[in-house]
Every structure is written in C-alpha cells, then in structure tokens.
Amino acid sequence: MVRLTQLRNNTSFVKALFSYLIITYLVFFSLPKAHAEGLAIDGVMLSYGQGMTDALIQYKDISGAQQYSLGLFWDTDYTFQHDLLGHAELSVEAYWSKISKQQTMKVLALRPVLTFWESQQKTRIWYWQAGLGVSYFDNKHLDPIEFSSNAQFAMIFGIGMPLDKAKQHQLTLRYNHYSNGYTSRPNQGLDTLTLDWHYRL
After folding, report:
1. Which residues, other chains included, contact 90 with Cβ-Cβ below 8 Å and sequence gap of 6+?
2. Are 97 and 75 in contact (CB under 8 A)?
3. Which of the 8 DSSP states describes residue 141?
4. C-alpha pair distances (Å), 189 with each of 45, 55, 111, 119
5. Which of 164, 83, 158 is closest to 127 using CA atoms?
6. What are the angstrom distances between the C-alpha of 157 and each of 32, 116, 146, 174?
7. What are φ and ψ of residue 45, in 5° steps?
8. What is the pLDDT of the chain when averaged over all its residues?
9. Residue 27 Cα to chain centre, angstroms
10. What is the CA radius of gyration of the chain?
11. Contact 190, 60 (CB under 8 A)
C-alpha cells in the first residue's frame, strides 16, 4: 500500500513537472524574439556557491557543500510594469550544476527568471530577481538531505548589479531552493547561496 501511494505521488509529480515544462516552452517559443532569432543564445552564466544551514526552508544543514554551475540564457521580449515591483523582464536559463559534500549530485535545470528594475530606463544600479523552474538530480542523497524523487522544482531569489554601463556583465547573489513542493515525502529541500556571473554575448 505504501509503495502504491508513493508511485501515485511520484506519477502526479512527474505530470505536474511535465505540464509546467510544456507551458514554459510554449510561452518561450511563442515570443517574437524566439522566432526572429531562431533561439540564438543571448549569453552564458557561471556560478559558485555553498550549501546553507537549516535557517530558511531546507530541513537539515548542508553547510560545507559546494555548488558549481555552468549554463546558457535567452532573453525574451516579454516585459511588464508594476507600480510596486517595478519594470520586469523575462529570461530563460538552462544550466548544469554539481553539488558536492560527502556525496555528489549533478543537476540539469530549466528556469524562467524575472529581473526587476525600478523602471524601463534602468537608472538604478541594482536589480532583484525571482524564478521558478524544473530540475532533475542524478542522485537523491546528499548527506543528510534525502529526496523522495529525482525531479525537483528549482526556485531562486536574487539581488545583483551590472558591472558595466552596457550591462553586458552582471553579478548576482542568489538564494537557490530545490524541493518537490510537498507532492511526495520526504521533502527536506536543498538550499544553496551562489554568486552568479552572467555575460551577454
């Protein structure tokens, strides 16, 4: 009975992830820029970070773990203006990560990210970000964290600043959280803090 319940939970989670992935692709491919430029890569990203304690969302302490990431990103034409949040621009990131402590996890992820400036003119020297995507882990265990499934949601909140006037180089401090959103248990989560460098081609 327990195995049957776990199977149903995993099946529901996979369906949720698949649906979210399809919606993300449909939105991205429907944008004018994606068609006009044939999905040309707009930039590359590198990041390094560390595992966090259990002070925020994750259930246990993985301080001492290290995370390395390499990825690509695509800008889109989607923007919106909000009186409180400011001017938002949507980009899509695809990246590979390696998270190591006593064990090693390798991660593939796809994540839409909203970058918020104070206005379309971007006169303020800093921005903040929020993103939610999907990821796949090749290993479900990073002592003492235990995942119930290889598929996880990938969430970020960040604050950063451009390093040049053309905004070709951007440096962002990001809080990264991976979990299955309580679609199955255990859902201990995994938190890292990374410094991300984005280079626009």
Report:
1. 76, 78, 79, 112, 113, 114
2. no
3. E
4. 24, 12, 17, 34
5. 158
6. 27, 11, 23, 6
7. -135, 140
8. 84
9. 17
10. 18
11. no
Distances 133 to 16, 68, 86, 178, 187 between C-alpha atoms, Å: 12, 18, 22, 10, 17
Is residue 177 within 8 Å of residue 190, measured between CB atoms? Answer: yes
pLDDT value at residue 8: 45
Domains belonging to the chain, first-starting first, are: 2-200 (2.40.160.20)
How far is the CA of 51 from the CAs of 6, 20, 124, 186, 194, in angstroms? Answer: 28, 27, 30, 19, 9
175 close to 131: Cβ distance less than 8 angstroms: no
Amino acid at 163: L
The beta strand positions in the chain, using DSSP E, are 43-51, 66-82, 86-100, 104-117, 127-137, 141-142, 145-146, 151-162, 169-179, 190-200
pLDDT of 45 reads 97
Whether the CB-CB separation of 192 and 66 falls below 8 Å is answered with: no
| Section 36-61 average pLDDT | 85
Please say whether the beta carbons of 185 and 2 come within 8 A.
no
Tracing tokens 């938190």 back to the chain, one arrives at: 191
Nearest of 107, 117, 112, 118 to residue 130 by alpha carbon: 112
CB 73 within 8 A of CB 195: no
Q: Would you call 168 helix, strand, or coil by DSSP? A: coil
